[in-house]
Amino acid sequence: MTQKKETCEVCKKPATSLTKCKSCGRNYCAKCQSPSTSQHFCKECVAMEGVISKQ
Ligand SMILES: [Zn+2]
Ligand SMILES: [Zn+2]
Asked: What is the pLDDT of residues 10-51, one digit of tens each?
């Protein structure tokens, strides 16, 4: 088994751990996690949508 190197699909930089965005489905790093939500959305999706649905 070879370990695949993880690359953030948002900022295109190597990352140690990735999270899958619930909106666009891309894998993003901790730096690309939206600071305005605790849910799994990348900062780009939050920027596009404005505010993700309030609960
Ligand atoms: Zn990133
Ligand atoms: Zn996204």
From this structure: 999 999 999 999 999 999 999 999 988 889 999 999 886 555
Separation of CA 38 and ligand 1 centre (Å)? 16
Q: Which ligand is nearest to the CA of 6?
A: 1
For the entire predicted model, the pTM comes to 0.76
CA distances from 45 to 10, 13, 19 (A): 10, 18, 14
Tokens coding 46: 């939050």
d(C-alpha 43, C-alpha 4), whole Å: 24
